[in-house]
Amino acid sequence: MMAMSTKAQSGMATRSKPYTYREPQSEFASNSKRIAAKVAIYGLLLLWTFIALFPIYWTITTSFKVAVDVTQGHLIPWVDFKPDWRGWRSIGLSPDTIFNTSTVREEFMKRFLNSAIMSIGASLLAVVLGSLAAYGLVRFDYKFAIWRNRDISFFFLSQLILPPVVLAMPFLVLYKELALLDTRIGLIVVYTLMVLPIVIWIMRDQFRGIPVELEQAALVDGCSTWGAFMRIVLPISLPGMVAAFILSVVLCWNEYFFAALLTSTNANTLPVMVASQTGSQGINWWSMAALSTAAIAPLAIVGIFLERYIVKGLTAGAVK
Questions:
Q1: In this structure, is the dihedral angle defined by the CA atoms of residues 118, 124, 128 and 133, taken in order, positive or negative?
Q2: What's the pLDDT tens digit per position in 3-17?
Q3: Do 225 and 125 lie in a common domain?
């Protein structure tokens, strides 16, 4: 028995694989790779931040330059050039002219009011219509000839890639017949149609992330479909509606093409006024930069204070 056991053990030993020594991976090398990856990622993020913020920095600093500083490309205030209020003085918004009568400032305030009314009005209308359309596309099945819900959604989203110049002549002729040229209502309608696909896209993802069982429970408790939407769905999707509204306001606020095409004097917006800062001697860069800074300041303030609501609204439908 001892001999057989010895033979069995020797056979198992001969069949077992020989042990190979493997050197453990160096902890220093592993940490170095992680650090290098983080440095590369943060480096790319810093580069992208610089690319995104440099135009804003250039605009703000240019509003405090004179002609010589603009032509020579001076960038750093108090180092390359001495800040001057010339650009802000030209639009009546400098400290020494803010309380004086200024026709340019009155014109600026008129354009500012036009931009605010049309951007907010169009965004509110787009959020209301877009939310209803998105809810219908998510919760109900439609059939128009060969069209289904997916086809209808694609039709709305395809409007985002439609060049605005394609609609220039139809809108111009239509608005001339309807007497809507150079009116706020005319631009509100155009802006609503422009941002409506984006609102539908955002709200569709919002409604998809809401369990349908919540609405079914509300229906069992006696709510109608409209009541379930107003009492259950609407409060839950409110962050998404706020995000869609803010994004729509930004897009409408910055729109130039239709504002320049369909308005002349009464309904001109800030982008049109900024683009008009040209004269016989060229572009007044300091005035244009001051107007641009004053135009983007409200949006920047809104973005800073409502950033978390915007992010929450845009990402709420991504996690179910």
A1: positive
A2: 444 444 455 444 555
A3: yes
